[in-house]
Amino acid sequence: MTKVLMRGNHIVGESAIRAGCRYYFGYPITPQNEIPEYMCQRLSKLDGGTFLQAESEIASIHMVIGASMAGGRVLTSSSGPGMSLKQEGISFLSALELPAVIVNMSRGGPGLGNIAPAQSDYLQATRGGGHGDYRNIVLGPSSCQELADLTFEAFNLADKYRIPVVILGDGMLGQMMEPVELPLELKIKKLPHKDWILTGAKGRPSRFIRSLILDPVEEEAHNWKLMRKYERITKEEVKWETFLAEDAKMMVVAFGIAARIAKGAIKRIREQGLKVGLFRPISLWPFPNKVIKEFTERIRHFFVFEMNMGQMVEDVKLALGGSSEIHFYGRPGGIVPTPLEISRVITSKYHQKRLG
Amino acid sequence: MEKVFSRPRSLKKTPFHYCPGCGHSLLHRIVGEVIDEMNLQEKIIGIPPAGCAVLAYNYFYIDMGEASHGRAAALATGLKRALPDRVVFTYQGDGDIAAIGTAETLHAAARGENFTTIFVNNGVYGMTGGQMAPTTVLGQNTTTSPGGRKEKRDGFPVDLSKMLAVTKGSAYIERTAVNSPANILKTKKAIAKAFQIQLEGYGFSLVEILSPCPTNWKMDPVEACRWIGEVMTISFPLGILKDVTGEKKDAY
Amino acid sequence: MATGCIEIMPELCKDCKLCISVCPKGLIESSDRMNQKGYYPVYFTEKDLKKEDRKCTGCSLCAISCPEIAIEVYRD
C-alpha cells in the first residue's frame, strides 16, 4: 500500500473521516488547530459532512453529545485549557453511554502554559477527568502511523462499548510529519445499526437519554453497570509494545512521544552493552497492569520516563505493587529531551544500581 | 355532549410533580397540544433543562435527550445538524438560558441554527430554592437578593430575548405569558408558529414565556399570575420582538 | 346558548384555585375533602344538576387554566 507524507494533526482528521466520522465540533487552540482546519476542508466536500467551529470548547463538547445522541460518529479535539473545559461534557458522555472520540494534543501547563509538547494530561485523561466515577478508553500513539491506526480504531471502540475514547497525543505528534499508510475507508452504510439513538419516535415507542438518576439505589446500579463495562474493556482492549525487553535488566516505561525518545536512548545504550529494554503502554486506560507485572519475575528495575512531573509512574507503581524498584525521570512544561540526555540519565542509574 | 377538552395524546398520564400553579405544568400541556395538532410526535426531539423541568422526559411520548446546565443550545445544534429533517426544541429556564447558557444560546441564534427554544422565565432559580436569576426584576426579593434586587449590589436584569432579536440569525422571537387563559392561548399560538418557522427552515426561533413560580415568589398561584401582569411585564413586555416572516423583520 | 359541563379529577387537583379565578359564572369551589396527595381539590358545583338547570357553557376557561389537566370539558 502506498504511503503518504502527512502531518500528525491532518492524519487524525483523515483517519477519522475514513472511520466514518462525519461530524466535527471544535475550537481553535494551539497545537491542534490543523485538526479543525482539516476537518473543515474535508467535511465540506462530503455528503452529510458537518463541521462547526463552536464558540468555546464547552459548546463544542455539547454539540458532540447532540450529534452522538443522533447516532453519528463524532470527533472533537483540543489541548490544555480546552480539555479542562470539556470535562463536564466528557463526564456526561460517559454517564449517557454515548460514543465519541476526543483528541488531546497535550501542551505545557498548568494554566495557559505554553504550546510546546508535554504529557501532563495523563492523569486527567486516565482518571476520567471530570466528576463522577467513570473512565474513558485512553490511547497513547507514539508515531504518525499509530495516530492513523488508533484514531481509526477509536471510533470502532467508542461505538462497540458506547464510551468516549481519548487519543492522548501531544504537540510534537500533532505537528510532525511521517510517511503513513492510511486506513481503508469504511462504508458508513455498513456500520452496525444503533437501536438506542434519538431520531424521533416513528414506528417505535419514544425513548430518552439521560444521566439524572435521583434514586441512589438506581444510580448505584448504573455505576456498577458502567463498572462491568470497564471490566470487559480491561479484559479485551489492553494494548502495549515491548522493545528489546527479552534480556533486559532494566525496563524503561514510557508512552507516546516519550517512548520514541526512549527508543532512541535505548539504541544508544545498547551500543554500550547495557541491557535496557522498553515497555510501552499503548492503551493508557486500560493500563496493561497484568502484562507489566509479569516482567517483574526477571526485571528488578523499572525506569519511568515521561514529559511531566510524574503521572504514569503512579500507574506503574500501582501495577508493580512494590515488587521492583521504580525510578523516575520527568521533564515538564513543554521540554522535549533528546535521546542523548535520556540515555545518559538511564545509563547513570543503571551503573548506580550495578546492573552490570 | 362532545368532549371538547382533554389531555393531549403526546402527554403521558403521569401526574406532574410541579408545585401547585407552576407554569411548567401549563407549558407541558401547551407543548403537548401543539405536538398533537401539528402531528409532530414522530419527528420531534426535545432537550430538557437542568432545573425544575429536568424530568420533562417523564411526561412526553417523544424522544428527549438530556443536556447539562445551560448547554441545551449546543446540544440542539449538534442534534439538528445531524438530523435536519426532525423538529428539535430546547426547553430551558431563565438561569439555564440567560446565565450559564448565554454564550451557547447567543451563538446558536447568530448562526441561525434551525431549532426552537422554549424559554420559561419565572425570574428565579426554582429547583435550587429561589435564588436570584438573570431575569429577577429590580426590587424582587429572592434568597440571594435580600430586600429586593438592587442595581448597585446585584446589577440589572437581562433581557435575553431582546439581545437575540438583534442577532441576525434569529428568525422569530416572541414573548408571551401563561398568567391568564387568553395569554395561555397566545402562548400556544406562538409555540406553534415557532415550530412552523423551524419546519420552513427560517432559522432560530424562540418563545419566552413569563411563568409563575408561586413557591419561590411566596405568593399563591392566583396572586402570582397577577404579579406577572402587573410587575414582570413592565421589565419584559409581551409581544413579537422579531419575525422574519412578518412585519418585525429587523432588529427590535 | 351552548350548554356544557366539566369533570374534575380530584386526585390530580392541587387546589391552586386558578380555575376558580377564571370561571365567569363561579361554578367551581374549594372542597373540604382531602385527596391522597394532601390537597383539598376543587369541585364543580353543578355536578349533580340536570342539563337544563346548568349555567355552565363549556367555555373551557377552567380547563385551559388548570396546570394539572385535571379538568375535562363537555359541550353540546
Average the pLDDT over all residues of chain A and give the rounded result. 97
Radius of gyration of chain C: 12 Å
CATH class of chain C: Alpha Beta
* Structural class by SSE content of chain C: alpha+beta
Would you spell out the secondary-structure blueprint of this structure?
The complex is a heterotrimer of chains A (356), B (252) and C (76).
Chain A: E1 4-7, H1 8-18, E2 23-26, H2 34-44, E3 50-53, H3 57-69, E4 74-78, H4 80-85, H5 87-95, E5 100-106, H6 122-126, E6 137-139, H7 144-161, E7 164-170, H8 171-175, E8 177-180, E9 208-209, H9 216-236, E10 240-243, E11 250-253, H10 256-271, E12 276-281, E13 283-285, H11 289-294, E14 301-306, H12 312-320, E15 325-330, H13 339-352
Chain B: E1 2-5, H1 23-37, E2 44-47, E3 63-65, H2 72-82, E4 87-93, H3 94-100, H4 102-110, E5 116-121, E6 124-125, E7 131-132, H5 151-154, H6 160-166, E8 170-177, H7 181-199, E9 204-210, H8 214-217, H9 221-235, E10 239-243
Helix pairs in contact in B: 1-7, 3-4
Chain C: E1 4-8, H1 18-22, E2 28-30, E3 42-44, H2 61-65, E4 71-75
Antiparallel strand pairs in C: 1-4, 2-3
Describe, in plain words, how this protein is organized in 3D.
The complex is a heterotrimer of chains A (356), B (252) and C (76). By secondary structure, chain A is of the alpha/beta class. Chain A has helices at residues 8-18, 34-44, 57-69, 80-85, 87-95, 122-126, 144-161, 171-175, 216-236, 256-271, 289-294, 312-320, 339-352, and strands at 4-7, 23-26, 50-53, 74-78, 100-106, 137-139, 164-170, 177-180, 208-209, 240-243, 250-253, 276-281, 283-285, 301-306, 325-330. The radius of gyration of chain A is 21 Å and the shape is globular. Chain B is an alpha/beta fold. Chain B has a single domain (23-243), classed as Thiamin diphosphate (ThDP)-binding fold, Pyr/PP domains (Rossmann fold, 3-Layer(aba) Sandwich). Chain B has a 7-stranded mixed β-sheet, with helices on both faces. A two-stranded antiparallel sheet of chain B has the order 6-7. The relative contact order of chain B is 0.15. Chain C is of the alpha+beta class and 76 residues long. Chain C is 13% helix and 21% strand. In chain C, the strands form 2 sheets. Chain C has a two-stranded antiparallel ribbon with strand order 1-4. Chain C has a two-stranded antiparallel ribbon with strand order 2-3. The longest helix of chain C is centred in the first third of the chain and has 5 residues, at 18-22. Chain C is globular, with a radius of gyration of 12 Å. The mean pLDDT of chain C is 95. At the A-B interface, α3, α5 and β9 of A face β3, α2 and α4 of B.
